[in-house]
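A note from the maintainers: we've had questions about how concatenated examples are separated. There is no special marker in the raw files; a new sequence line simply starts the next protein. For clarity in this README we add a label.
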Amino acid sequence: MKTLTRSQMHGYQATSVDKIKSTHKCALFQQCGLGKTVSALTAIADINPQRVLIVAPLRVAKTVWHNEALKWEHLQHLTFSICVGTPAQRLTALKSNAQIHVINIDCLSWLVKDSAVKPKYEMIVFDEFSLLKSHSSQRFKAAKALCKNIERVVGLTGSPAANSIHDLWSQLFLLDSGERLFKTVSAFRLQWFDVGYNQYTFKPKPAAMNEITAKIDDICLSMKADDYLDMPAIVHNEILVEMSLPAQEIYKEIRKELIVEVDKETIAVANAAVLVGKCIQIANGFLYDENKNTLVLHQAKGDALESIISETNSPILLFYTFKADLQTIKQRFPQVQTLQDNSEQKVKDWNEGKIPLLACHPASAGHGLNLQQGGNVIVWYGLTHSLELFEQANARIHRQGQTKTVIIHYILAENTIDSAVLAALRNKEKVQDAVFNSLK
């Protein structure tokens, strides 16, 4: 992979870096695809604190931050310790002299209350800051304790107020201890919300939005992708996920031996074409046995899709590969809709913004559908081998009449055939040959 240089960063990213450097406690409210990670890492490299804690969802903590640093020449000197796994593994990681510790957000309470090792941090970065929007959650309480004596705090999110501006109170409190939006959530509500009869609903007063945003404007940098992306009309975003260790072993064994046993079921491959299909299945999280029954292996791609959904304030067009993929998606995301039933009405509903998550197979949605009015975000849960279907599927929303930058996310299982498939598609090679070669 070619290393990028700092001069290749975009102007809006430089603005983000300057904001973090000049404002000791701040939030970047920026949509997916704007490169919040590289902006934060560049600021860390410039500020050069002795020790930094990055708090992120598990998948992001394990793969995203250190991989992003490897892409950039000016960030490769940064050192990372990934503090995930069992308590013993986390303790070992916390003892590391690495400049940056990355921890799963669900381990915050453990770090504050139960960890025998408590490093002193000069800077904390919260990735997906909106996961701390609940002021009564254990996550928030742990974050509050951590931030109390930290010099620099940065919050990153693409959806700071996905439900309501009520979500902002806890996030801002972690930055300024209530200086801007009151020290208690009760006072915040009293000032800007009408409380429902059940005491659980909070309707913003007419002036709430303008008044709240005016108060926090000095420490928040908000960017929408279509306003700030000074790049081509399509943004390609690769999201690497790590399969479970058992799935990794199954993948290695079937590649090497052309046969594997899973849940007492023996699965064999007859030729390279079958092997390719089995490797893609494993990357997606399952295997079909000899009777076409589905053997579930991991949930890594579902976890990544959940993160994308939480960070995206726009309808998502989701492409999948196998029927088993769709079944998994339906079970985990009951809001998903498909084009299988009443497709004409579904297309109409999509283009009117009524469907937040629309799942399609590229073979059924690759031609003839105009979906550009309904959204600008595509997610590839599993890739197709066909260059034609790939290009036509992306063209469903990247076409004349689309008014926003199109963001295409590719969920790729690390150390699998996924990256070879995407590289072949991108390079417009003969996809089958390139994929077969990658398995030699």
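[label: protein 2]
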Amino acid sequence: MTEPLRGAVLAAGHGTRLQPLTAHRPKPLVPLGAGRLIDHPLAALRAAGVARVGVNAHHLGAQVAPALAAVPEVVAVVQEAELQGTGGGIRGIAQALGGTGTLLSVNGDALFDFSLAAVLAQHRARGAAGTLALRRVPAGSPFARVGVDRDGRIHRIAEVVGPDAARQDLILGAYTGALCMEADLVARLPAGGPCDVLRSAWRDALADRAPLFGAWVEPADAPWFDVGTPDRYLAAHQALLTGALIPHGAPDADAQGRRIAADAVVAGEVVGPSAVLAGAVIEAGARVGPGCWIGAGARVRAGVRLTGCVVWPGVEVTAPAADAVLTG
């Protein structure tokens, strides 16, 4: 009998690059679209059939467990008093979840629309100990750092090299932050202390010629966003508005690209593509859009003009703004 899948969302860290958005809430709980940043990797794991997920937390970590209490898949939140890195994060989550099933790990600040189920299928079909989800990138790209042969076998991961890393036929791809690991590969992680998963367990396994593979995500141009800075945060919302990323939980778009909740009150003007979520109010004389995301319960006062803005839930906007995140 196959052991149940295990899922990990790596969501610890200081959220420094995303400041000031993380001043009062941890990065995984920052509003994103119609939910929170962490809802997107959780949805990806759910779609892949993962029913037991662990999340690690650090900055303002006490907020995370209560916020995820109603998410049935999240069965463990691991608080890291000291940051443990990607390897230590996976180790702690694996220990908290128990079991020996395949572990699917994703970065908590990544938004993507490729299928983790397809990556998992390739992983299992090859009998792999570990699989990295890879994107095809142009030759010479600084992100092309994982070298695989034509069978998909990994021979180098940046400066982590295997015995055949000098082969001239390697194809270089970009690591997306999503991976599969079997229990024997997880067991190669150091027993304690901070560590990088690729520079510890994967380095050791690569040296031993263990079956490590790359799985090319499909379609090749599937969107992927690292929501690490305010600019990337704004760009992710534009991708949600245009449908480049699936806007989970948002109202359907009308012919003008406007996603307006049924109970939103719109007395002013909304220019698509834009979204106005549940209970939000756009007062008479206000103009919202294009490119605006108005959170649930927010209010845009009369005469205010917004373009390219993200307004957090419950925030009252009294002054015009452009290309800004309005957090209240």
